[in-house]
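Anyone? Bumping this.
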Amino acid sequence: MKLNKVTKARPRRRYEDACGAAHALDLLGERWALLVVRELMFGPKRFSDLRADLPGISANVLTQRLEGLEAAGILVRRRLPPPASAQVYELTSWGYESEPIFQALGRWAARSPKHDPRLPLSASSLILSFRTMIDPAKAKGAGGTIGLKFGNETFRLRLSGGKVQARRGAINDADLILEGSPPVIAAAIYGGQPLATLEAQGLVRIMGDRDLASRFVTLFPLPPKAA
Amino acid sequence: MKLNKVTKARPRRRYEDACGAAHALDLLGERWALLVVRELMFGPKRFSDLRADLPGISANVLTQRLEGLEAAGILVRRRLPPPASAQVYELTSWGYESEPIFQALGRWAARSPKHDPRLPLSASSLILSFRTMIDPAKAKGAGGTIGLKFGNETFRLRLSGGKVQARRGAINDADLILEGSPPVIAAAIYGGQPLATLEAQGLVRIMGDRDLASRFVTLFPLPPKAA
DNA sequence: CTGTATCCGTGTTGATACTG
DNA sequence: CAGTATCAACACGGATACAG
């Protein structure tokens, strides 16, 4: 039993720079930190959910990042009410306000010549990409509630006014439900794979308003590559 | 003389993730990379300028970052015409398009309870902050060309339509010239220090349209802290 | 003067194993 | 399930030496 846990008062590596961007990097510029925030962007998750959704992160690094982000006021750890006595990590409202950072990064990276869309894609990343890439002009007339189902995780999207809102949660009231895996849905929307083909291959299930589905997949145009 | 430059085929640490934000971090998520890009945002610089403007970076790390950013197509190295046979690093047009990333980071960090505005501030950071924080409504009616002079580095700002354009370069045609150090100008604009006081203390020189100066310093409101 | 290469002490990261 | 412990590999930052 080690009691001499000196903890070293962490002289964490910081940029000594008043620039806002530099300060932001002090707070969430460490490896994995932004991706942890991304995974929490549509609602709280448990430690093991985060580990599962961030393949490659190791337990000790995840622990450290959660500590750091909590200390910075970006997330809080909550204990769920007695029945499910689990712990979850949830962004603070300031934490949720970091979304434009992901959108700026994503929009810029979409033009990267080296971007490989065939790598693994998490559900949160996909939903975030919808909010980033939606074309307000094209989506102007479109409206409705869309449920996305990935395994047993569901997201409820509301399309209106040229924007998408999104949140993890129930999709009972959805006009349309799309079921599949994030990469397959991405192939339909960004990769030009016809939904009908994917449905015939059993990779996607479409329930409800199929016209809405046909339209939905056209609302997210990709910019030209920069190369 | 070492010829066996094996170069190690750089197994750089990457996220294996199709998410655009993750890819962006693969390209410029390493320590210092974003700050190097920031310093180049208003025009090319030489190696030693970068070193001087990024206190804390070491020469070998700067070399590595420049190599990485060049390989990624974010910047190019150019050799200046014979008279001044110096090398400069310049963002590609895609590199320049990363500016919204800094704006998102800066806007978010401006609300951080832990942000310390008294740390050193580079000229590029300050100019970038103008483009980030300008209030289009307040700036709607303001117009003019403003020169900022920091030592022997000058920036030319054009104010119009509620926006600011900025570029390093000549300021002969400016309606107003402000001379000082970046932290002092920041104190005037973000710290509520009256320009007149700073001028009386000899920390700022104001040449030209003083009404424009008075108005200019009010165009960049800070958001409330998140705490 | 403008970079580049190498050594070196230290801290960070990541894989595995392990504990409550 | 939610982390900790340990350890090896790597990245960082400083110094110094070198090259055009």
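Late reply, but here is one note on the structure posted above: Residues 13, 30-32, 56-61, 64 of chain B lie near DNA strand D (CB under 10 Å from a C1').
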